Amino acid sequence: MIETVRVAMTPAQESIWLEELLKPAGGGNAGFFSVLIRGEFDEAQVRSACLAVCDDSPQLRGVVVPGEQRHHIEIGPAATRFSFETCRVTAAEGEELRVAREWYLRGHGGSWDLTTRAPIRFFLLDHGGSRASLVIGVHHIAFDGRSKFVFARRFAHALTALRAGRTITSRRPDRPSVPRPDIAERVSEAVRHWVDAGLADLPGLGLPLGHGRDAAGEVTATGTFHAPDQACTRLADLTKGEGTSFFTGLVACAAARLHQYGNSRFVLGIPVDTSTPDTRDEIGLQVNVVPCLIDVPPGASFRDLVAICGRALQTVRRHRHVPFAWVLRELRRQYGVDVGRTVFDKVGISYPTVVREHTEVPGLTMEWDFFAPNSTQTFELILQLRREGHRVYGRLDYSTRLLGRAAAEGFADGFVRLLDDLTEAPDKPLPREPKRCTPALRPETAARGALATPWPEEPVAVTGFRALTRLAEQPGERSAAERRVVCPLEQFQPTSAVAAFVRSGGQVILEATDPVLGRLGSARWDPDAAADIPLTDPAPGLRFLVTTDQGFPVPRGVPGALGVLGGSGPGRFRAWIDERDHVRLLGTVEQVRSHYGRFLDLDLAEARTAALPGVREVAVLFGTVSSKAAPRVVLVSTTDTSADERHWLRAVRRVWPRNWPRPARVTLAEELPRLPSGEVDRSALDDA
What we know:
The protein has 688 residues and is of the alpha+beta class.
């Protein structure tokens, strides 16, 4: 009889448990996989085989016992915490695994109360006709990516024995076997590495916007893609000649793909196996995620990038046993650097060894689906790559908060095409996306179709934002001229008063004039549209493109500096170009800060704050990263609002962009100082 014992959580388990506490409604940090069973089998034997694996694996029969100082796992008999359900789920021949995926993702994963139930559950989906899918849902506090292959071997061994009438041999260990190397020195080394790497200066990651993004965000996946066999052969030859691994070449290709989006310095997260010969056949947490920094120099070739990624992955090997939660903790404690996971949770590359041997059962056909998408998010996007023999295939798992469906499919398709191109010409400079330019769109084109009322026939004099605010706040009837107002784009803020003015029949036309490039065009503001502003009436004859600050063209959907073909360089305005070639304005370049690997767009913060009831105008100030200064908000309220600064601070924080450093204070002012151009004088506010 197995006795109930308590063991202290490992660092990895503590990290996952803390994440569970911080996100109680997040559905649990969990995943799943499945196996299609064909043939005559006994449901009771399948159940007993699953129970036997849990008997052999202490991690799978433990529940969390929270403590004030230290948390524990209480491990008891598997039978007392065993969850096995049988369901009738119709599936056509050949569609069983797809149906099983969709069935589980539709809501059967659910949240996980780790204090009352074991971290594994089983569902046997009866499809009829001697077909059934066994779906295994697992929580990552006890199970990692490599454990699914261990489970498959043990399950097949147990089911084979039961079908043959043999007794299942089991070790029935009472305690999990967890490697606990002395890592204090390695933690210090990893912390020094990231401090020396210049975390504060890491730029934000440029990725495409576009339709289909969701502010709430959910985890989804693209379809499976397959790399060309000839590209894989060339990559194997190249990496062997360079003295690196095949995986290094795949990482280099992913880095080259990110480089096409205008990124030259970024972090990749690499899941690595930390098991030892003694623990290799154990189910549990033996995969650690180690971040590595990639720097792509100008003019680098793919061969150069393979060498760069090889050196970066040496860091992964050195730090593979270091719990990254400890690195974050020490960065906060020793250096006051509180980056959370914002630098490190964007892009991951997973490349586990696929094991299929010893997973068959005599008399049955077993089809394992080890490639099911995660039901919860680990990275914003993770490139799931697999290699079986000479075949390489993959999938992109992504958060819809970051990418839309079309952008995610485009990223994956581009990775495959790039792998073919790079291995064919590894010594050429890394290819960039073609310099696409959007033609000038007139109101007569498709963009005009988005306008609710006709574009004004006669010219209207340009006024300032302050004059627009006064007009919007005036009660009573307005003349035809007063219902059409033109305001410089760089002055405009979407206050609730201006929104009410437009909804009552007014028109606000935003004029975009670049100090270097000249007049770019104008757009009519719609308070019910997206936060970005489509340039609905471009200046005649211009062809637009979007670049990085250094003038590197980026693909459609990627935000950057708006320029024109033949212009003198990037302009002042930020924008992105959508799939219909419409320019969508985002504010000014100087309003963007890079903060520990994340873009802070102060125009976005100002727009959200300006939309609060009772706000007349607002300015968000953000010092340099090195100053560690929190954002400061200077706000002008309407005259009938008597709320104090503490009220406004609470209101501003409610609408503040997520994962940003929160403002420390809100200062009330009678009016904002402005330059002769009408723009807010931010230097005067900085000195105040």
